[in-house]
Prior knowledge:
Layout: E1 7-14, E2 20-26, E3 34-38, H1 46-57, E4 63-66, H2 71-76, H3 114-126, E5 130-135, E6 140-144, H4 148-158, E7 162-163, H5 174-180, E8 186-190, H6 201-210
Parallel strand pairs: 3-4, 3-5, 5-8, 6-7
Antiparallel strand pairs: 1-2, 2-4, 6-8
Helix pairs in contact: 1-6, 4-6
Bound molecules: zinc ion.
Amino acid sequence: MNSGKNYKTLKSKKTKLGNVIELVASSHFTLHNSLIIGVFHGDEPQGKFLIEEYIKNNVTDSLSFIPCLNPDGMQLGQRTNANGVDLNRNFPTKNWELTKKNEFFGGKAPASEIETQFVIDIIQEYKPSLILTLHAPFKVVNYDGPAKSTAEKISEIIKYPVEASIGYPTPGSFGTFAGIERQIPTITLELDETCPVENLIKPVHKIFDLLL
Length: 212
Ligand SMILES: [Zn+2]
């Protein structure tokens, strides 16, 4: 992506449909900073827009971004990636399981997908101290691992309630992989999809600033 001279692509990977997933950060980016991920689910495009707007207008050395983890799903207008896998069920957690092929299909094996492997590699290489993923449409601040106080601060900004669990089982989820099993504070921010995405710029960018 064209992200100006302050940011560069630290890592990238080509997807099945030939799209590119990128990790974007400042040239001075180091270990143990916050990682923000957009578009885990292709039908939740808000994250890409909000991250790209932030990158255009803000300079920081202490955040890294995957603006769009699931470009194939976004291109196809679907939750899953091009293989029909829900990336948020494909992580190699202790509770990963082979499930029915519906929109929550966790893949034929844990970490079977390029997109999942991309995130795992980044966590191993850059060891983020906190991870925020942007989803829709539930209007909650969900967290896994030691992220309660950060979740509460985010809740104050965006006025969605904090929830420690989303309320249904999520085997192979990213929150379980990063938050529960690796104890990296992990926030899943479920945005409102009924309002124009422009209305989310102010609160969401304030949340990004909180993670600096
Ligand atoms: Zn989602």
